[in-house]
Design goal:
With about 55 residues, this protein is mainly α. It contains two helices and no strands.
Amino acid sequence: MVFLTENIGTILVGLFVAGVCALIVRKLVRDRKRGKTCGSCDGCAGGCGERRTRL
C-alpha cells in the first residue's frame, strides 16, 4: 500500500498516456478499415482515400 501512495502521480500519468495511445491505435485501425489511409497506393502524393473539400 505504501508503494501505491508514494507513486500515485506516476501511476496516474502512466494510465493516462496508455489510454491516449490506445485511442490513437483505435483510430488508426478504424481509418484503415474504412479506407482512409494510403497503405496501398504508390507514393501517396495525391492523398488517396481522403475526401478533400475546397472552401
